């Protein structure tokens, strides 16, 4: 059983978490073409590597972002979504 | 005793020849390069050579043949799907499987044992009914049966599942079978090699040379090979290959795990699947119970085993078979499955000229081995999707024309 | 013949306690502490099992669970491993997989007669022509395979599971493991666990004594130190089952599994002895040297009377000295190596007048006339360079036992599973760790360290490294000397013999020639060879066979051993019982706070998602179909009551609450007035229907949502996620468990509900409205919902007060014959009302357009989840549509059922999703997917029933009973 660190509740066994898929930036729905939108909805950045992912700590109802390497299963960092927003805005 | 064995008893020497030549160095040019020496890639090579006369073919395998999901699955073959296109496709596969031992002169241990998909809830009974109706429509032998019929086929099972999820009925699929998975790969490899195909193991594809939207060759750990046609048949590794040609797919990779017990005398004659309990189990001809469960709950490109899997699986196994409490699990393992949003494969041509995909196999790849080989061979030879795989084209996602296989929404292996 | 010798120091027996048992119908006695195998061997019993394929008689090989020669059944349990399972009073044992008993196993003729035909992979080459004969052959093969028979009456034994956390977990309580634990224990803060699969700690130090008393005193010293160290826990008879991510190691004991999570892991699991390969190396009486040593010092048994030691390392000399100590007449030491080993050991043997044949091999073991045991060995010169035995110069030595010592293989399963990279060390002819993952350390023989002092040092080194890994920078730096003696393993202890029967894998009856033949057929890499020959795939998972297989393949390929590599190691280290792994298996079920009331009222429960809900209430003498009609007619004619507590309940509050709902659901909520309720549909980003529910605006900034039972957790989770992304000022509270829901429906419902309160709110409440009031001192929310009836009150009550309110309603309803109803009737009632049910009338790909619910899609909103996909889908041709239909008046004949297909011109156009007879409508009514051009009322389509007959159905408007006049 793998361990994962919830930014609020600390390190817990993975059975307490729900995987929410890779974090995806939603394109502006007003300007994208149908095909671009379909690509956003269906296609995934699926090659292995370090990914920003949604994870949910079930018992406490906490969504957060985990930076996890999908090849090695190593988790580099976990943080609340706000931090991702801050990072993006800095960029 | 079969004649073939008499030969060994009375012959002085063991004169069996190699199944396939272990080609060390690839040629400079091939008509078709197949990435992936699993069942699918080898079958495609075999049918390219046999049915389309295209023999200048290389099968490139990064490890050894059949070492990926071909050698890791639980060997179930069936065609009791939900959509007509799915049922027809897998039914064609079952029919090819039935004659495969003779065709490839190798005993695949293709054993038709009947297949029960158990329903523990009213809603899964409805799904079973739905599947049965579609199967019947297409001419596939599936029907909904009650507890009595399940009890007759498997009297040892606790139909009340220790009181936790009593079985209400099942979808019974008469053609449900198991086969010796490794032998399928070996048989196709030998068949293809005999027709002139080069099978090149321990050779990794590092890049695919695409220029002006067209395939020109592949860069491998053993040098550059020029070719106009490349088939990717690498379930579990598909995203790594599609990245090389820069095409997007909806595939995500999830490990799929399985385990076996130590051998015991045969008692389980049929194949038992429970979607609700996430269990499938059959007994191999070695006497081992071969058991599997649903996909791992998160994306991972690795074949590590997890304890959660074996704990969950066995807890359900003892619900169904309490007397197995002290039967021992010998070994667990994992494969990597391509998961698609609509639980159907992705097959056929792509936007890149000369790049063909055979992917998205989820948990159903092994049972499709012969038909995927045959249809992909036809698709490559004619550069036009075979009729049976039209619904499985990659562009269906952009077109919002997903197949209906997900309608079943419960696991089935 | 009694082989027991006098008491040995450190032996595992309690000689004062005698145990009686039977084996193959014969009576035996044993001492407490004896394993089944040791007890039988002590009594002179040598045939302890039959092999898997050829049914050859088998005795002891490892006496350590590295082989499965001795597999037994006691009539209750099967595949009992005699080498390690202690014998218990009254056991009645037989060997598994024999026909007629272990001595007279009639299947032995298979081995004798058929083995020439049963070449490696024989089953791939035959039996499939003609095709119809395969089931016949398969049946024979299936019954031939398998070991023990399963006992179908075996009780379910759910074992508990524990969780424990340690700083250091040491696997293996041999000298290196004990030394590692002791070294780590100097930091008193560290919590240390040592586990060992054996009944007693000590590892090889307990039995590899070379006739000396020193090893045992060294062991006792180590153990007494461990015993007085408070921060070390030592658990024996406990094996580490596997390594899993993040240092999770299940420790398996008879009593159950402890899931150990450790900061650091020290693997000191030692090595498995690998038998040399020569003809008849499997005869009872031929055993590993370490097996003979275990026999002597653990169980006080003389392994044989007249023994020959066949060795290819120095350990054979130690074994010879131990045999002498046990009273065995050691007739020869046959050393495969040409250069005699000049050491203390040879001198000691010389003192005992033991003849040493250097550069010789045991060419074959000879069987007694009944084939049941060894009677002698054929010895001949052997050339290590060419791997040739000069059988022309052979001679025979009579003996009743052979001890074999040729080398070792790392017991590195957990290290492999953790991701270790290995290298092959030619100085010891063994794979050893090259690099290890973080927090994992190896010590002792598994790490290639053999000398006793160095093993102690290596344990301390591993501990120091573990401590440094945990941040203790002052841990000492300890160096371990490289191996300087002769190699403990021989590079190729394989003696060719034209007649074969020189076994590599005893589980699977695989001989040396099988590898050669497999390679001839092209299976010449280690993984393919494993799969083709099945080497290492038996229950002992290659513990005694993998290394020899690799060595043989290396010779065949003319490659160095490290180029061959090794096969993947997978859980479990030893086969592990399903009951242990499954554990106690908890099945939590959610119940309404008045579940017992339902039970008392005769409810039959059904699982709905995580909940258990009443499906219907039994009435004596009334069948289910009739009950459902009665319950529904009660609602239509008077009043019914249903417990809807399982519905998901979510409060959405805050300044942006309305905005949030507008984004999450397809409909509009910004203009919803306080006191109003609205239907809410949620779809996912690809526009597939997820769920629906009811949104009540309780206050300006407080919405209260009820959603479907099964999807509630998922919908709540998705709401939380979107809220994060939208960063709105909204609070979401899942109050599903806090409230019960009582739904009072039917024309008399208003009387029943208003009789409980003076508040005029209730009587004034109209459809689509919600209010808050007090009912018998309980604050409640009441909403007027027309889901199952035109008149219905959904009363949301704090869960702990629900029973009181429910009972008052029942009492108030008595005057109107109020009837409780369950989910079965609810489904009929909503069908009669013409409402589809997500997950019942929809599937995993249904889009709103297929439900014809365009009016619920506020496409003029700036955004909602799935909206953009809907815009794309709106341009596409619809493939099917859900429609309400009826069958002909007075329909008789084969009744269509759920999931029967809608067929047009032989093609599937859709399916029936709901269908039922309705007393109220007096018709068979239902929902079905049909061709989109058949949506108009009056359109007709055909349903194919179970028996194949086609039934005409007519599309109608809903609610069904309102449109009755139209039929």
TrEMBL record, chain B:
Entry's transmembrane regions: none
UniProt xrefs under InterPro entries: FAD-dep_OxRdtase, FAD/NAD-bd_sf, Rhodanese-like_dom
PROSITE patterns listed in its UniProt record: RHODANESE_3
Gene3D superfamilies: D-Amino Acid Oxidase, subunit A, domain 2, FAD/NAD(P)-binding domain
Keywords: Oxidoreductase
GO molecular function, one term: oxidoreductase activity
Keyword Nucleus: no
Ranges where the Rhodanese domain occurs: 32-76
GO cellular component, one term: cytoplasm
Family annotation (Pfam families): DAO
Coiled coil: none
PANTHER family: FAD-DEPENDENT OXIDOREDUCTASE DOMAIN-CONTAINING PROTEIN 1, SARCOSINE DEHYDROGENASE-RELATED
Protein name: Rhodanese domain-containing protein
UniProtKB/TrEMBL annotation, chain C:
One Pfam family matching this protein: SO_alpha_A3
Record carries keyword Thylakoid: no
InterPro entries xrefs: 2Fe-2S-bd_N, BFD-like_2Fe2S-bd_dom_sf, FAD/NAD-bd_sf, FAD/NAD-binding_dom, GcvT/YgfZ/DmdA, GcvT/YgfZ_C, GcvT_C, GCVT_N
GO molecular function: oxidoreductase activity
Residue stretches making up the SoxA A3 domain: 499-581
Parts forming coiled coils: none
Residues covered by the Aminomethyltransferase C-terminal domain: 880-961
Family, per entry: Belongs to the GcvT family.
Protein name per UniProt: Aminomethyltransferase
Taxonomic lineage of the native organism: unclassified sequences, metagenomes, ecological metagenomes
């Amino acid at each position: 059983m793998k361990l994962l660190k919830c930014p609020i509740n600390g390190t817990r066994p993975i059975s307490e978490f729900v995987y929410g898929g890779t974090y995806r930036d939603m394109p502006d729905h007003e300007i994208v073409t149908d095909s671009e939108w379909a690509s956003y909805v269906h296609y995934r950045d699926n090659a292995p590597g370090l990914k920003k992912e949604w994870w949910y700590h079930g018992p406490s109802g906490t969504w957060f972002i985990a930076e996890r390497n999908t090849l090695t299963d190593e988790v580099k960092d976990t943080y609340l979504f706000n931090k991702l927003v801050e990072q993006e805005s800095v960029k | 005793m079969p004649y073939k064995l008499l030969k060994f008893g009375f012959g002085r020497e063991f004169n069996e020849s190699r199944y396939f030549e272990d080609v060390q160095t690839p040629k400079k040019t091939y008509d078709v390069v197949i990435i992936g020496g699993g069942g699918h890639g080898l079958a495609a090579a075999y049918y390219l050579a046999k049915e389309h006369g295209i023999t200048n073919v290389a099968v490139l395998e990064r490890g050894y043949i059949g070492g990926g999901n071909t050698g890791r699955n639980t060997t179930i073959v069936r065609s009791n799907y939900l959509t007509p296109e799915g049922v027809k496709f897998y039914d064609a596969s079952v029919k090819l499987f039935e004659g495969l031992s003779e065709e490839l002169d190798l005993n695949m241990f293709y054993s038709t044992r009947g297949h029960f998909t158990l329903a523990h809830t009213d809603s899964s009974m409805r799904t079973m009914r739905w599947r049965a109706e579609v199967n019947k429509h297409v001419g596939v032998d599936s029907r909904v049966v009650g507890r009595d019929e399940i009890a007759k086929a498997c009297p040892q099972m606790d139909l009340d599942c220790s009181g936790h999820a009593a079985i209400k009925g099942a979808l019974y699929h008469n053609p449900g079978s198991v086969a010796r998975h490794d032998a399928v790969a070996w048989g196709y490899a030998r068949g293809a090699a005999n027709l002139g195909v080069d099978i090149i193991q321990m050779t990794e594809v590092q890049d695919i040379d695409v220029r002006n939207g067209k395939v020109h060759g592949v860069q491998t750990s053993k040098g550059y090979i020029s070719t106009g046609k490349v088939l990717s048949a690498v379930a579990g590794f598909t995203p790594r290959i599609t990245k090389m040609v820069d095409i997007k797919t909806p595939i995500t990779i999830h490990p799929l795990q399985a385990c076996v017990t130590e051998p015991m005398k045969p008692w389980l004659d049929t194949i038992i699947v429970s979607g609700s309990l996430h269990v499938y189990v059959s007994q191999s001809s070695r006497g081992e119970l071969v058991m599997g469960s649903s996909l791992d709950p998160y994306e991972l490109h690795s074949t590590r085993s997890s304890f959660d899997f074996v704990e969950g699986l066995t807890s359900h196994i003892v619900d169904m078979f309490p007397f197995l409490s002290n039967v021992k699990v010998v070994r667990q393992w994992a494969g990597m499955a391509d998961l698609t949003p609509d639980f159907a494969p992705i097959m056929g041509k792509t936007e890149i000229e000369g790049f063909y995909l055979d992917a998205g196999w989820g948990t159903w790849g092994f049972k499709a081995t012969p038909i995927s080989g045959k249809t992909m061979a036809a698709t490559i030879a004619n550069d036009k999707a075979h009729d049976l795989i039209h619904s499985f084209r990659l562009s269906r996602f952009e077109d919002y024309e997903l197949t209906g296989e997900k309608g079943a929404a419960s696991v089935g292996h | 013949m009694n082989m027991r010798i006098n008491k040995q120091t450190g032996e595992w027996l309690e000689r004062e306690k005698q145990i009686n048992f039977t084996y193959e119908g014969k009576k035996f006695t044993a001492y407490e502490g004896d394993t089944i195998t040791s007890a039988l061997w002590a009594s002179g019993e040598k045939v302890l099992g039959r092999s898997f394929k050829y049914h050859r008689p088998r005795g002891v090989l490892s006496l350590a669970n590295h082989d499965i020669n001795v597999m037994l059944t006691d009539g209750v349990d099967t595949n009992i491993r005699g080498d390690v399972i202690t014998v218990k009073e009254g056991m009645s044992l037989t060997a598994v997989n024999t026909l007629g008993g272990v001595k007279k196993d009639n299947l032995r003729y298979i081995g004798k007669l058929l083995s020439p035909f049963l070449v490696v992979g024989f089953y791939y080459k035959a039996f499939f022509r003609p095709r119809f004969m395969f089931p016949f052959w398969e049946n024979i093969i299936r019954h031939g395979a398998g070991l023990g028979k399963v006992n179908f009456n075996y009780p379910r034994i759910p074992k508990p599971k524990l969780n424990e956390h340690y700083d250091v977990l040491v696997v293996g309580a041999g000298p290196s493991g004990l030394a590692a634990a002791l070294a780590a224990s100097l930091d008193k803060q560290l919590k240390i666990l040592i586990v060992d699969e054996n009944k007693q700690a000590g590892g090889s130090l307990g039995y590899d004594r070379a006739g000396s008393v020193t090893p045992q005193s060294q062991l006792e010293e180590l153990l007494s130190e461990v015993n007085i160290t408070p921060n070390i826990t030592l658990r024996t008879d406990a094996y580490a089952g596997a390594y899993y991510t993040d240092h999770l190691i299940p420790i398996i004991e008879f009593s159950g599994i402890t899931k150990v999570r450790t900061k650091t892991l020290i693997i000191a699991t030692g090595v498995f002895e690998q038998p040399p390969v020569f003809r008849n190396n499997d005869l009872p009486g031929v055993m590993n040297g370490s097996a003979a040593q275990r026999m002597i010092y653990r169980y006080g048994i003389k392994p044989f009377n007249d023994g020959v030691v066949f060795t290819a390392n120095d350990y054979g000399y130690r074994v010879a000295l131990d045999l002498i100590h046990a009273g065995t007449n050691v007739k020869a030491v046959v050393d495969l190596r040409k250069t005699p080993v000049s050491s203390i050991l040879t001198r000691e043997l010389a003192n005992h007048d033991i003849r040493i044949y250097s550069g010789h091999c045991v060419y074959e073991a000879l069987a007694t006339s009944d084939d049941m045991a060894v009677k002698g060995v054929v010895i001949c010169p052997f050339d290590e360079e060419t791997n040739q035995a000069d059988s022309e110069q052979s001679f025979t030595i009579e003996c009743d036992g052979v001890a074999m010592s040729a080398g070792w293989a790392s017991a590195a399963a957990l290290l492999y599973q953790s991701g270790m990279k290995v290298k092959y060390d030619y100085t010891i002819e063994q794979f050893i760790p090259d690099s290890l993952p973080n927090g994992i350390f190896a010590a002792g023989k598994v790490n290639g360290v053999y000398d006793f002092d160095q093993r102690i040092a290596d344990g301390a080194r591993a501990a120091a490294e573990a401590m440094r890994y945990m941040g203790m920078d002052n841990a000492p730096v300890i160096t371990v000397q490289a191996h300087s003696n002769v190699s403990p393993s021989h590079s190729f202890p394989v003696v060719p013999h034209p007649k074969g029967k020189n076994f590599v894998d005893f589980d699977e009856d695989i001989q040396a020639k099988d590898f050669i033949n497999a390679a001839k057929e092209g299976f010449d890499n280690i993984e393919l060879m494993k799969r083709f020959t099945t080497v290492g795939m038996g229950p002992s998972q290659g513990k005694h066979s993998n290394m020899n297989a690799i060595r043989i393949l290396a010779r065949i390929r003319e490659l160095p051993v490290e180029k061959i590599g090794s096969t993947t190691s997978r859980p479990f280290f030893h086969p592990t019982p399903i009951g242990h792994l499954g554990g106690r298996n908890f099945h939590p079920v959610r119940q309404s706070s008045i579940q017992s009331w339902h039970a008392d009222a005769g409810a039959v429960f059904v699982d709905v998602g995580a909940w258990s809900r009443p499906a219907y209430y039994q009435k004596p003498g009334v069948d289910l179909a009739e009950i459902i009609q009665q319950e529904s007619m009660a609602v239509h004619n008077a009043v019914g009551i249903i417990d809807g507590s399982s519905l998901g309940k979510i409060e959405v509050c805050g300044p942006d609450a309305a905005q949030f709902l507008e984004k999450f659901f397809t409909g509009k909520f910004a203009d919803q007035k306080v006191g109003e309720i609205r239907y809410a549909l949620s779809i996912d980003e690809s526009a597939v229907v997820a769920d629906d529910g009811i949104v009540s605006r309780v206050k300006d900034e407080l919405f209260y949502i009820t959603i479907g039972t099964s999807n509630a957790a998922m919908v709540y989770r998705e709401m939380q996620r979107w809220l994060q992304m939208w960063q709105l000022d909204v609070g979401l509270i899942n109050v599903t468990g806090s409230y019960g829901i009582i739904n009072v429906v039917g024309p008399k419902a208003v009387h029943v509900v208003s009789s409980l309160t003076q508040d005029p709110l209730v009587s004034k409440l109209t459809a689509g409205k919600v209010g808050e009031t007090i009912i018998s001192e309980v604050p409640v929310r009441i909403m007027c919902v027309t889901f199952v009836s035109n008149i219905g009150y959904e009363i949301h009550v704090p869960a702990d007060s629900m029973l009181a309110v429910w009972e008052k309603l029942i009492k108030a309803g008595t005057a109107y014959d109020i009837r409780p109803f369950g989910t079965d009737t609810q489904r009929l009632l909503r069908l009669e009302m013409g409402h589809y049910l997500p997950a019942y009338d929809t599937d995993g790909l249904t889009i709103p357009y297929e439900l014809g619910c365009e009016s619920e899609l506020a496409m003029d909103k700036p955004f909602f989840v799935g909206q953009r996909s809907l815009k794309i889908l709106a341009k596409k041709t619809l493939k099917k549509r859900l429609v309400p239909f009826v069958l002909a008046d007075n329909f008789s004949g084969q009744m269509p059922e759920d999931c029967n297909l809608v067929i047009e011109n032989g093609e599937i156009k859709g399916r029936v999703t709901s269908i039922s007879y309705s007393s109220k409508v007096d018709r068979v009514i239902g929902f079905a997917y049909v061709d989109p051009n058949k949506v108009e009322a009056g359109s007709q389509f055909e349903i194919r029933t179970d028996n194949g007959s086609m039934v005409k159905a007519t599309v109608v408007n809903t609610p069904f009973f309102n449109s009755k006049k139209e039929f």
